[in-house]
Structure formats: C-alpha cells, structure tokens
Amino acid sequence: MNITLRHGNDSDNNICNKIMELALAPFQAKDTDSRLFTKPQTAFHFPTSGSLRLLAIVDNKEVAFVDYLISKRHIKYLFVDPEYQYKGLGTKLLSSAQERMKGDVSVNVLCSNELAILWYLKRGFNVLHCWAETFDGNQTAWLKLSRREIT
Predict the structure, then answer these.
(1) Which residues of the chain have pLDDT under 70?
(2) Which sign does the torsion angle of CA 7, 84, 36, 134 carry?
(3) Burial, 107: exposed, middle or buried (Cβ in 10 Å; 0-12, 13-18, 19+)?
(4) Sign of the CA dihedral 90, 91, 95, 96?
(5) Collapsed DSSP state (helix, strand, coil) of residue 131
(6) Which domain holds residue 81?
(7) d(CA 56, CA 1)
(8) In Å, what is the CA distance from 2 to each residue of 53, 67, 79, 94?
(9) Among 34, 102, 110, 127, which is most buried by a count of CB atoms within 10 Å?
(10) What pLDDT shows up at residue 34?
(11) Are the C-beta atoms of 90 and 63 separated by less than 8 Å?
(12) What is the spatial distance between Cα 126 and Cα 147, in angstroms, rounded to a whole number?
C-alpha cells in the first residue's frame, strides 16, 4: 500500500467531512452520546483558522486527515476512514504533524471514545487532566492527552 501525504486547506472540508462521518458511524449506532457526533443534514464546519491540515492518500483517494495548531502544539482532529484503519495511516499523520509542530503535542478526546483514548495511549500519550463542560447542550466529559516530542 502506497501512502502519500499532502497539505490540505478549507477546500478539502467536504472530503474531511465524509471521512469524519465514516469514522464516527459506528459510534452513532451504539453510543448513548451519539448526539455529540451528529448534526442536522448539514456538513460539519472545520474551523481551520490558524490550523494546518495533512491528508493521507491511498490509491489516489483521500482516506484520512489531521488538523493541527502549530502555535498551541495541539491536534484538533484526526480521523481515518474505517476501511483504511489499522494500516498505520493515523500513526503516520500523527507523527508528521508532531514533527512539524517541533515539540510536545496535546489532543482533547471525549471520555466516551474509549477506542481513541486507547489508540493515543498506545502511541505514548499520557493523560494530563479531565474536565466536564456543556457541549451541544449536554454535560460532556473530556480528557486532555499529551505526548513528548519525538526524538
């Protein structure tokens, strides 16, 4: 499998929205907090102000992306099409983003997303803290995870 990365921008929002919908579909069917992932029939808006984006391409198809903020060394979004998960795409995107940020990185993850939390922990992230806030009209628990700079 040949994986290439390319820089993305706001014009890729439709592609990224589709990847995100595919990645979150399993949660919508069984997660009691599925309302957090679904919006009315409109596309999710990716607020990319100040952020950068990398897309992973396999066989000329965009199948994964990461949005990140260099100024805050923070991963905003990282999603992989389920058909392409467990092939190293997320790890490659994460490593590439962290190399560009040149330092420790952080990410916020919903506490109900156990698979994502485990995925980040297996890649050297540690839990910094947890908090609850009102999100989409409901009290929602989050974790902030952090990983030291790759050396």
Answers:
(1) 27-49, 151
(2) negative
(3) buried
(4) negative
(5) strand
(6) 3-147
(7) 12
(8) 20, 22, 19, 17
(9) 110
(10) 47
(11) no
(12) 6
Retrieve residue 44's tokens.
């999710």
Residues 132/140, Cβ–Cβ less than 8 Å: yes
Residue 8, C-beta contacts closer than 8 angstroms, at least 6 positions apart: 16, 53, 54, 55, 65
HEC profile for 136-147?
CCEEEEEEEEEE
As given in the structure block, the two tokens for residue 48 are: 């990319």
Structure-token pair, residue 82:
């389920």
Q: What is the CATH number of the domain that holds 126?
A: 3.40.630.30
| Nearest-angstrom CA–CA distance, 129 and 95 | 22
Amino acid at residue number 74: H
- Entry pTM: 0.83
Number of domains present in the structure of the chain: 1
Closest to 147 (Cα-Cα) out of 44, 78, 48: 78
127: number of Cβ within 10 Å: 13
